[in-house]
Amino acid sequence: MSEDAPGGTRQLPPFHCPYCGDEELTPHGESADAWRCGACLRAFTVRLIATGVSR
Ligand SMILES: [Zn+2]
What we know:
The chain is mainly beta. It has a domain at about 15-45. Helix content is about 0%, strand content about 20%. It has strands at about 25, 35, 45. The structure holds zinc ion (ZN). Zinc ion (ZN) binds near residues 19 and 40.
């Protein structure tokens, strides 16, 4: 691992696996928003589409 994120904080898995509900999510590949489920071995990305907007 040679990646050093400025700020030093590592993004945490935002939720359980959307496919099987397991919590064992680990970073996948080089994308900061890609995760892999350790239970069902699915890999997926998480994309933010909005922040703090209420209506
Ligand atoms: Zn899963």
